[in-house]
């Protein structure tokens, strides 16, 4: 019995060597001469079985099978929405819904629910969860630029919802969506134009080098003089943001116009008309600002498109300092290795919470101007966050007097 | 893409999409070995992944390797197929019958004939022996993975494959050529 089991194991090893590693039957048989005949017989039968069914499936059928798989995944996702029960009345379960949303969002233990809610549409049970999670996102944006970008995305989401409700006769949701879109538009525009307006108003104090412009960016949007992919300066990023926002508003204006015919005369249509006009005004305002910015970028006697390339922006260009207080310190590990430390801080200015990830490639800890140790971190300690141009937290500085509570551009 | 261990513990749609690329061919060959029909093999291989998407929740609860789980689904589809066929015998256009009218190359015709010969021999094995040969040599599963499919230990699988190969070799008769120095064809390997 022992010998048989032993042979079974030897055979199994040889099967793996022949099938997986491509060794010959003879090579394996040579290693086990005491079982040579039995091994050769068994392996020859196994190889014959493997070769008999070793066909390459038809590629068209395989593609069709892949399509079926994707369709099944799509069905599964839509079926997951068993909770997509339209609310019986606009106000009826409102308190219960708000309580549910508060519970889900505040408890912070419902990432899955919030993710599931991302596909929600107005009137569905989890739609308020999605809106609440958006508010949380907005509250956590670190910079004006990030907030502007997020609001542009939310505007796009609301526009798609507007398309949905107007195409399915759910006019009761139009007013809320119109108000939301207008709020995001006004705020996004206000945040985006600030830096560009300061460029225009700072004329002629132009110290930015003139970059080499590309004919168009990745979206095909004509790139204005002074804009280039690569290592854009803070100023270029600001202008580019306004360019995109302006284009978005024009696109939204056209889409809103197409929704107007879907709703009957009444408040909904008037709301859509007003929103369309607001988009139009916003677009025009941004275009005028961009024209002025274009002029500001022109250096007499220099064609911006043939100017010198932009050097890498120094790390302190466009950074923002935020006075904060350390609220929590969490060590991050994978069970064996220390991966880093997450420091939760609260901004003195507006009470927003941020998390600095102190890892090898993440946020640097600086104490008294030198690289610091996590042992020097204390709860309720005053600190300064150095936030990069795209919102990333570059440094957490402690051990020095914090600057004014206001955000200061360095 | 071969999923990581943690991926295998909790598959999602994305993981199944990745596994599809890796396992579709092997499952199609396994089902073909079990049924003798390449058409059925490819049909059921497609069905395996659809079933997997629909019942991913049950996988999470069981905690078996995901490959083994997919092959279990394939096994059950084969069993269902045989049950349906037994209740409602249908005229099946066998692969072998299609050869005459197809534009296949000579090599492919030979391949199909070899498939038919081996399939006929395998029908003389008991169901467990057929299963282990199909899982190991067509599904390209390891003894451990085959054990997870069949609900047996790896040791039991090794013993089962030993008796199965011995029986198959006997059925092939003395004229069966030894593969000798040549390993299996390119299509066989690749696990």
Largest beta-sheet details of chain B: none
| CATH C-level name of chain B | Mainly Alpha
Q: Write the H/E string of chain B, N to C.
A: HHHHHHHHHH
Strand content of chain B: under 5%
- pLDDT average of chain B, as an integer? 76
Domain count of chain A, please report it.
3
How would you characterize the largest beta sheet of chain A?
8 strands, mixed
Unreliably modeled segments of chain B: 1-11, 88-103, 179-191
Shape of chain A from CA axes?
Answer: flat
Q: Write down the oligomeric state.
A: heterodimer
Helix percentage of chain A = 40-55%
Net shape of chain B:
globular
How far apart lie the N and C ends of chain A?
81 Å
β-strand number of chain A? 8
What is the domain tally of chain B?
1
> Which two protein chains have the largest interface (Cβ within 8 Å of the partner's Cβ), and how many residues from each?
A-B, 50 and 60 residues
The secondary structure category of chain B is mainly alpha
| Terminal-residue CA separation of chain B | 13 Å
**SS element count, helices of chain B:** 10
Mean pLDDT of chain A: 70
Describe the structure.
The complex is a heterodimer of chains A (410) and B (191). Chain A has 410 residues and is α+β, with helices and mostly antiparallel strands. Chain A folds into 3 domains: 2-50; 141-306; 320-409, OB fold (Dihydrolipoamide Acetyltransferase, E2P). Chain A is built from 11 helices and 8 strands. Chain A has helices spanning 2-19, 25-31, 36-52, 59-79, 94-107, 111-117, 127-139, 144-167, 174-201, 234-260, 267-297, and strands spanning 320-333, 338-347, 353-358, 364-367, 370-371, 382-387, 393-398, 408-409. In chain A, strands 1, 2, 3, 4, 5, 6, 7 and 8 form an 8-stranded mixed β-sheet that branches. In chain A, β6 and β7 (393-398) form a beta hairpin. The termini of chain A are far apart. Residues 79-115, 203-232, 298-317 and 401-410 of chain A have low confidence and may be disordered. Chain B has 191 residues and is mainly alpha-helical. Chain B has one domain: Up-down Bundle (Butyryl-CoA Dehydrogenase, subunit A, domain 3). Helix content of chain B is 70%, strand content 0%. Chain B has helices spanning 5-9, 13-35, 38-54, 56-62, 66-87, 95-98, 106-122, 127-138, 143-150, 154-172. In chain B, α2 (13-35) runs antiparallel to α3 (38-54), α2 crosses α5 (66-87) and α2 packs across α8. Chain B is globular and about 50 Å long. The model of chain B is unreliable at 1-11, 88-103 and 179-191 (pLDDT under 50). Chains A and B meet through α1, α3 and α4 of A and α2, α3, α7, α8 and α10 of B.
């Amino acid at each position: 019995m022992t010998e048989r089991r032993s042979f079974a194991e030897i055979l199994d090893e040889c099967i793996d060597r022949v099938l997986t590693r491509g060794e010959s039957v003879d090579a394996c048989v040579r290693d086990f001469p005491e079982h040579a005949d039995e091994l050769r017989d068994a392996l020859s039968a196994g190889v014959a079985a493997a070769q008999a069914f070793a066909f390459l499936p038809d590629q068209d059928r395989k593609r069709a099978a892949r399509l079926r798989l994707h369709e099944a995944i799509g069905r599964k996702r839509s079926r997951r929405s068993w909770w997509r029960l339209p609310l019986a009345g606009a106000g009826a379960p409102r308190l219960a819904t708000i309580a549910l949303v508060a519970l889900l969002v505040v408890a912070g233990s419902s990432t899955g629910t919030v993710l599931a809610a991302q596909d929600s549409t107005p009137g569905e049970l989890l739609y308020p969860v999605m809106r609440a999670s958006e508010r949380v996102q907005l509250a956590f944006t670190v910079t004006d630029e990030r907030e502007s970008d997020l609001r542009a995305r939310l505007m796009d989401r609301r526009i798609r919802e507007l398309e949905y409700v107007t195409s399915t006769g759910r006019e009761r949701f139009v007013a809320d969506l119109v108000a939301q879109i207008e709020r995001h538009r006004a705020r996004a525009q206000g945040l985006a134009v600030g830096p560009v307006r300061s460029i225009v108003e700072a004329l002629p104090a132009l110290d930015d080098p003139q970059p080499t412009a590309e004919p168009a960016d990745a979206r095909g949007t004509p790139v204005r003089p002074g804009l280039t992919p690569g290592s854009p300066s803070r100023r270029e990023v600001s202008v580019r943001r306004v360019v995109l926002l302006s284009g978005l508003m024009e696109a939204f204006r056209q889409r809103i116009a197409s929704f107007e015919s879907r709703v009957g005369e009444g408040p909904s249509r008037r709301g859509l008309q007003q929103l369309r006009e607001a988009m139009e005004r916003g677009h025009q305002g941004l275009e005028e600002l961009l024209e002025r910015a274009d002029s500001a970028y022109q250096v007499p006697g220099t064609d911006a498109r043939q100017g010198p390339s932009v050097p890498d922006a120094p790390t302190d260009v466009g950074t923002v300092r935020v006075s904060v207080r350390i609220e929590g310190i969490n060590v991050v590990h994978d069970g064996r290795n220390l991966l880093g430390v997450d420091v939760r801080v609260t901004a003195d200015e507006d009470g927003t919470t941020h998390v600095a990830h102190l890892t090898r490639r993440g946020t640097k800890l600086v104490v008294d101007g030198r690289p610091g140790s996590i042992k020097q971190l204390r709860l309720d300690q005053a600190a300064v966050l150095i936030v990069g141009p795209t919102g990333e937290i570059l440094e957490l500085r402690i051990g020095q007097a914090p600057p004014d509570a206001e955000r200061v551009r360095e | 893409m071969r999923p990581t261990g943690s991926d295998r513990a909790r598959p999602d749609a994305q993981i199944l999409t990745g596994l599809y690329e890796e396992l579709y061919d092997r499952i199609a060959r396994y089902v073909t070995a079990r049924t003798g029909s390449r058409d059925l093999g490819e049909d059921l291989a497609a069905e395996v992944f659809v079933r997997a998407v629909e019942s991913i929740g049950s996988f999470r609860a069981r905690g078996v390797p995901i490959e083994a789980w997919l092959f279990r689904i394939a096994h059950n589809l084969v069993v269902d197929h045989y049950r349906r066929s037994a209740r409602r015998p249908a005229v099946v256009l066998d692969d072998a019958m299609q050869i005459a009218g197809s534009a296949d190359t000579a090599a492919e015709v030979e391949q199909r004939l070899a498939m038919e010969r081996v399939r006929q021999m395998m029908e003389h094995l008991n169901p467990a022996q057929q299963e282990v040969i199909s899982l190991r040599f067509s599904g390209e599963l390891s003894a451990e993975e085959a054990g997870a499919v069949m609900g047996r230990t790896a040791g039991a699988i090794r013993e089962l494959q030993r008796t199965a190969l011995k029986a198959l070799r006997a059925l092939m008769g003395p004229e069966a050529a030894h593969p000798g120095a040549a390993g299996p064809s390119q299509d066989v390997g690749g696990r």
